[in-house]
Structures are given as structure tokens and as C-alpha cells.
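Collaboration report, partner site 2.

Our partner group contributed sequences for two proteins of shared interest, and the home lab folded both. The records are reproduced in the order in which they were received, starting with the first partner submission.
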Amino acid sequence: MASVTSLTAHVHQRLSAALTAALPETADADPLLRRSDRADFQANGILALAKKAKANPRDLATQVVDRVVKDDLIEDIEVSGPGFLNVTVTDRAITQTLADRATDPADRLGVPLLDHPGTTVIDYAQPNVAKEMHVGHLRSAVIGDAVAQILEFVGETVVKRHHIGDWGTQFGMLIQYLDEHPHELDRKSAGDGAAETGEEAMSNLNRLYKAARTLFDSDEEFKTRARRRVVDLQAGDPATLATWQRFVDESKVYFFSVFEKLDMEIQDADIVGESGYNDMLDETCRLLEESGVAVRSEGALCVFFDDVKGPDGNPVPLIVRKSDGGYGYAATDLSAIRNRVFDLKADTLLYVVDARQSLHFKMVFETARRAGWLNERTKAQQLAFGTVLGKDGKPFKTREGETVRLVDLLDEAIDRATAVVREKAEKVGLSEEEITENGRFVGVGAVKYADLSTSAVRDYKFDLDQMVSLNGDTSVYLQYAYARIRSILRKAGDARPLAHPELALEPTERALGLHLDQFGELLLDVAAGYEPHKLAAYLYQLASHLTTFYDQCQVLSDANPKEVVENRLFLVDLTARTLHQGMALLGIRTPDRL
């Protein structure tokens, strides 16, 4: 499929050619084109080019203007200030470019694919086996899912990896307790033959974990037996592994229920936890030691860094293997890098992980570079994210000071959103089933959008009252904008969306059209920087342009000529399709009726 060339690109090409004609020694000169409030575009590159050529900027700008042909693309071009160029495109060019987007046979709205796509492994949504998911797991899941979908949409091959915590010393305690109390993971409430729910699975795991911990802390003999099971687990004892697998399977029932509530699709094949790299740990350590990247220090295998020191000024190493022979997180993470680079053939490794782990990943990535596993061709990057805060600006906790369970947070958001949907349901004629479904889409969308509309590295306040508000920068505002357009299209009768490039456009039509034209370039920019908050900002601006347009330009009116009605229907239809596609890439649904 051939992507649609944007107006920005067309104008850029035209100005670049005129610059080269005026200054032949500056082939492919960049006019530094930007959107402008004074005109449709402003070119700021002439000042620097004139300085380099020792020319007068205004004279050079005038020469460029003289060489630009005014035609179906450019309506007007003028010199401004010391040598800026203000460019206005024609109404015909706006409508025709949008028409090309609307008729894209692949229904990609003209969004281009990457020129040189590669393979990205993205590590996100990393819950722990036998433990509940809490608010701290929200951002990794939501940001990771959006980045994965955006990268896939622009043509990147994406391999998803959910690096769950399914290994470690706590499993000795759990396995030993379950062996001595074999019915503790039996279903307590599901009927015979009924599928176990995620809540039931987590309830069983919670009960078992608390009982095992109480016994471990109070019974020295049990503690000894539990520690022996850790050795059996690491040695691959079949019976111990079988019991361990029960914990993993029970936890997955719960994980999948939470991800389903989050409206995220997680495949079992994408879940490769810490245990998935056990067979590589010894070789990873051997390779690091033989290459001199890691050295033995006080019995442990360590990697040292000149710029990482503790409060006492002494070097703080990355411990790959402990002095007792056990492996830490570093060994697993380094083995995962080897697997992702050499087996999965990744060009890029993305880790959507809390900013508080930044030092660990800095050390892991540097170790992998020294070992030659990462290089100029293969890069690793942490997409670090900030903390979810309460209204008081402190880390989000329950009134009892406990970490908020993710399912409780989502349930409350859905309840609030359902109440908002119900208020308008009678006017729209929604059934009870539609109210329930839309309440879920609006509630989960509200939580996701609040997260994604904030730059990942920043903390953000979790305020449900604001999140489900119909006003302001919220997903509900965008969802209602989409539903409003769907309502207009349903009321249009025989009138159909049809572009009419020959028509003059009102100012609000132009503003909406010019914003729609940016969608393709915006998505490539979002994908390049892994910044879904830029897509959220674009969609909010799009909905705002729609609101202004709708207030000033009546779409369905007998007073308007048929061509005007069709062209305005075309504009709102393309806006709806762009909102729908953009929101889908953020993992948010857009109901037809709200």
C-alpha cells in the first residue's frame, strides 16, 4: 500500500526545491517547516542557511518566494520578520489530501509504514506468581500494551514478553506447605465442572501464602524443610517442579482475569518468566567471567563500574552470582538479553519498568554491551515510568495504608463510569446491557487514558472524579466526541460522506482538516520515541477541533447545499475513523452510542 503524502511533506518538498534553486550549493536544504498560528505553516530554516552562505536572510527568503509556484497546493507565501516564510495552502489541497486518506484501501488512513522496520522485544506487564496485582502493575501493562500496538501498526515486528516473577526462595516455603496441605489450592466455591474465576484463584493463593508464611515464621523445622525445597527446585526435582507448576498455573488464571478486565490481550506464549532462563544462567556467568567482564569478589561474581559508587565512596557492583552460588536478578536479565538478541533476533529491547529500577538496568545494559551482546545494531532501552499518586500527592494507598489492589481500582472506575453512562442512557435509548458494556469501556478507558496522557517518566495523580468527567482532557470526552459523530451519521438519511475539493472551507473546517492531515506523521513520531502521551494529546486536540467545528458549522441543514452537507459529513466521518483508530492504539474502545 502506498502511504498518503501529507500536506507538510508536500510543502516541505516545494520549499526545499526553491531553496536549492536559490542556493545551488545547499542541495536538499531543510526549510524547518512548522505549523503556525499566523498561517498554515512557517519555515524557519532560512536564517541559518543565509548565515552559512553569508547572505541577507530577507533577500534569500524573497528569492525563495519568487521561485515557489502558487498552484493547487500553495495559496499564498510571504516573507515575515527577519526571514521567516509564512505559507498558506489551498482549501482544495486540504480536502483532496484528506480524501486520499479516507479512501486508503488498507483502511490505514494513509499512515505510512516504517522505511526500515526491525524486530522489537518489549518486556512489560510483569506480575509475580502467587501474589496479587496492585496499582504498581498498572503503568507497565498499560504503557507497554499501547507501545506494542503502535509499533505493530507502523510495521515493526513486535515480540511481547511478560517476565513474570515465578522463581526464587519464597517458592520453597509455598511448595513445602502445599505438599503438607495438598488440598489448599482446591477450589472452594466453584461448582463441579465450573471454570475457576480469577478472584477464586487469587483467594486460594492468598490464603495459602498467609498460612505458609505464618508457619515459616513460627516453626524452625518447617523453615528447614522449606529451604531444602528451594535446593530441590533449583536442581530440577520432578515432584518439586510439578508442585511449583501448580502455583504458576493457578496464578495465570488470576493474571488472565485481570488483563481481561483491563481489556488487554495476553497470550500464554508471551509469558516467559524468570524460570524460562534457568538453563542459561551457568553459561551466562561463564561467558562473562571468561571474557573478563565479570570478576570474582569475596566469593561472588561481580561486574564493577567507575560511575556507580555507594554512600561510602566504594564501588557498588552488579552481582551476577552470589557467594553461595545462587543467581540474582542480574543473571536472569542478562540471560534474557542473550535469548532475545541471539534467538529472537531482536534489533531493539524495550523494558517498561518502574523508574526506581533504572540503576539496575543501566548496569545490566552496560554489562551486556561489554560482553558484546548489545552494540550499535542492537540496542536496549528502559521505558521508565513514574509513580501513581493519590489526590494528596503521595503514593496511592488504601485508607489502611496498604497498596491498592488493581482489580479494586478497576471495579471502582467501572462503577463510576457506569453511573455517568446511565445519566445519559435514556436520552440515547441504551439498553441495560449496553449501559453495562459501555460503563466497562468508559471506566477502563478512563484509567488507561489518565495514565497514557501523562508522559511516562512523570508521576500522576489518580483522581477518578476527574478521569470520568465529560469535560477536559479525558477519554470520556473523546469517546463522547466519537459517539456524537456516529449519531450525526445515523441521522444523515440519504446524505453520504463525500469529499468536494472544489468547495471553499470555513476556518474551523480548515483547522480540523489540517489537524487530521498530521495523523500519519504523528504516529511515526510516537513510534520513534515510544511516547503514547503524544498520541493522546493529538486525539484530545482533534476532539477539541471537532467541538469548535460542530459549534460553528452545522453539518445537517436543509439550508446548506447538498455538496456542503456531503463535505462536512466527510470531514466528521474521517474524524471519527481517526479517533477510533487512535484510541484503539491506546487500547481504548469507542462505543457507537453513549
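Second partner submission, folded after the first:
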Amino acid sequence: MSLKSRDDLSIVLCGEAGQGIQTVEGILVQAIKLAGYNVCSSKEYMSRVRGGLNSTEIRISSKRITAYVDRMDMLLALNEGALEHLKDRINSDTLIIGDDQQLKTVNQEYNVLKAPILQSAQELGGIIFANVIAAGVLSNLLNIHSDVFDQIIRDMFQRKGEEIVKKDIKAGQKGYQIGDELSDSIKIISKIDKNPVIKDELLLSGTDAVGLGCIAGNCKFMASYPMTPSTSLQIFMAHHGEDFDILFEQAEDEIAALNMSIGASYAGARSMIATSGSGFALMEEAVGLSGMTETPVVIYVGQRPGPAVGLPTRTAQEDLNLTIFSGPGEFARIIFAPGNFQEAFKISHQAFNLADKYQIPVFILSDQYFAESYYNIPSLDLSDVEIEDYIIKTPENYRRYNLTADGISPRGIPGYGEGVVVVDSDEHDEEGHITEDLQIRTEMVNKRYHKKMKLIEKEIIAPELIGGDGYDILVIGWGSTYSTIKEALNVLGSDEISFLHFNQVYPLYSNTLDYLENADKTIIFENNASGQFAKFIKMETGFNIDEKILKYNGMPFSVEEVVKSLESLRGL
């Protein structure tokens, strides 16, 4: 028995919450990279601690891969419900591995290999060892040396003590033994080329990339309330807080979190929060406080399906409107939506400089798919990493909201200089004291909104055009759809199709209309039900995008879905 010969394999692990599917993912992605293969993983999971069905997809390839595919070359089933859960992705080419119990309902026409993973786990001391055994089986089949595997196990579990490490290494050895028995029946990865350079590359998640960017941006304070999928960024920043002199505060709720961060920023610390849609909804009054007091803050929003709690552990692009129109009144803001890890690092670093420069809230829009995907990259570009300091030492007669020609008042902080720093959430005069003078009101709105936006519009990141500029069909995407659309266009290999990717969604790039009008047909892909970015483009430019491909079931677009949609729209 053999897998379909290819240089790109998709392996899916499926089991219930509590069986350690994410542990297997953590072991395998490291092992695959250290073995010299390109790797990419993404996950879908239910909102529960035990039970249900979760799956992780791990792709291994000779070339760089960063996107989710529907194709399953191999399925490792750790639960009998796995086959039903993934039935739409299983086909006659899929190799299915599992215990007798897990495979009792499998269709006889499928490729099946019996592997006593759960039985072996019980013999070793309990079902808890099934995840490490499974990782050992796959590592063996992927030709990963057992010494590499053992070292990863030791690094992952050493905090639990030597006795636990020994048991897990033994479980891994059992997995390798089962893999030896299976290897007589299956040969995989034969066409996937190893590259020794890859083992020294960075293996990151979207969360890691954003977190590293925040550290590079000199973040010094973060207050947040746990909420999937933003919690992973909170954990990242808290974990590295001592090393980089960052204070992390788990607030009692989302309202307190943003107000704390604004307070820390008022005192001079570069500050941020991380939240998700319904948590951010509670913060809107404080967003207005940032706008009115012109206090910089970075706001990370990990999107997930709503309304309300929605699907807490799934992915979506449903909070664009929420962030664009958040907060009472009118004031300047910037909204980023990175599409790859290099962008995420650079944008997160820039977010702090821009927040300080223009004294505004700056948003970073992510989502569950982007935040929790992993892949290897050569490095992060540190050449432009610079911490821009815009805080001044206040003179004796300092006026916090001095009406300047460009709308940017010199920003002082309490205790630094001779001046008094007065802020107020009511309308205020140049000194910061409450006023109802209507002329001053008009001047302050012009300052906070019109003048700042004119400056910000000069710094907008231009969208990336992938493909030639002689396109007939223009595909538009933003944020996390980047890798999937890009790979789909590579699959199609058509010169008539190009892809316009936006990693800054507000303000809209001034020449966007030129790109759109250059196409015979325009198509946008979004993970929401209303085409929020398409509507925003129309609101800003008057241009109506021809086709809106919208997905809102909580799963990301797959490469195959994008290819199929584009082929259909081209009439192929």
C-alpha cells in the first residue's frame, strides 16, 4: 500500500478534546522542521475541555507552504467519530490509520492500516500516552530520526519531571515500533526533498509573530481579559514579560483592561490589550476615551464568529465594521490586518510607533486561523526595527492639546518636565480643561480627525499586487486569506488573474480604485456573511466589486475552495 506520489503531503489527526491532539501537533511540527522539511499546521476544535471532535492538519512539503487544504493524504483517527467528522474530506486516496475500535465503521473501499495506538497506551499506563505514541508512529513514517524525536519530548515535558519524561520517551519508542511494523505496508514522503537549511529556520505561529512585533515595538504594559483566540497572545506577552520588562495584568473584565492600558500609556508606557469580538464590544467607550484624550494604545482583536459568544474557538473576519466604527464620535485611527508572519511582525512593531506618533488607537485584526497556524520561515527582517520616541519634556507653561498646524500636539507625560499634564474625557481646551466653547470644539475635532487623517493617509501601506499588472481578473483579499489565495493562484497558473492583498484596511489606500478599474472582473474572498470589506471599498470609492465569495461557517477557506470558485467564475 502506498500514498499517492507527491511532494506535498497533508496529514490530519483527529480525536476528542483531552486526547492531546495539540500535543501531537506540537511534537510533529518541530520534528518535521528539524528533519529539514517545510511544515505548516492549522487546527479546528470545539469549545469544550473534554469530548467532541478536534482535528489538526499538518502539511509537509518540498516547497514553502502556508495555507490550509481540504485534501487529506493520511488520517490518524484517535476516536471512532473521526471518520464521520471528516467524511467530506476523505476519499479513496486517503490512508486511514487507527485502532480496530476507531475503524470499525470505515468504508471497505478506503485504504486502512490498523495500528494498536490506544491499546498500547493502555498497556503503558493509560490513554494519556496515546498522543505521544501517535506522534512516534507518524515521525517514524516520515523518516524522522528517533534521536530528534526524543529530544523534542525531553524539551516539551522536562518541567513535569524526569519520571514523566522517561514514560513519554518510552511511549514514543512504542510509536516508532508500531511505525516499523507499518512501514512494510506503506512508503511515504519519498518525493519530498529535505533541505538542511530548514532545521535552523524559525518555526512560528501567527501569535508568536505578532507578539515578537509587539516586543520589538517596545510594549511595556498589557492588560487583558482571557478570550479565545486572543488569550494565546496574552500568554505569550506574560511569558516573556520578565525578559523584556513588560508588565502584564489580567484585568477583572474587558472594560477595565482597556482603561488600564490607556492609564499606563498616559503615564508614558507603550501599552496594548488583546481581546476578541464580543470582548471588544465592551471596550468601545474606552476606545472613545483614547480618541478624545489623544492617548495612544494598540488594540489586538482576534476575530471569531459572532454575534455575542458565537463560535468561540472558530475563525472569522467579522469584526472589521466593529473596529472601523468603534467608539463614540469621530477621531483618527489605523487598522491593520496582517496576512503572513513577516507582515505580522513588521505591522505589530509599526503599530506602536504610529500610535505614539499620532496619539491614536491602532488596531491589529487577526483571527483564530491566523493566530493558531504554524509554519517555518527563514527569518524576521529586523532592519527597520526602530523605536521612535515622541514624548517631550514639558515646559513650565505646557498645554497638552496645543492647536498646532498639523494637528499633532507635543505629548508630555506626568513627572517629566516642569509642566502639568491635564487630560479630560469631556471636550477640552488647549490646556486640557473642560470647555463648551463651540469654536474650540470645532478646532479640536479638526485636530483629532481631519488634520491627523491627512497625515496618516500619507503613510498608508500600499496593498500587495501578486501577479502582473495586465490582469483581466483581480482577486481581492485582506488579512488571513493571503496565503490561501496566493497558493490557489499558483495552482491555477494563469497570467490573466492577479491578487490584491490588503494588510492595512483603514484608512483605505488612496489608489485602490485604479487597481479595481483596471480589471474586467473583480472577486473578493471574505470570512463573513455580508462582505464587510467589499462594502467598505464601495463606501470609500463607489466601486461595486463584481463577485463576493463569502464563507462564514467558522472554517477558513481552503486552497481547493478558492481554486474551484475562480475556475467557476472564469467559466472553466
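Feedback sent to the partner group on the second submission included the following. Residues 391-459 form one domain. Residues 208 and 420 are 39 Å apart (CA to CA).
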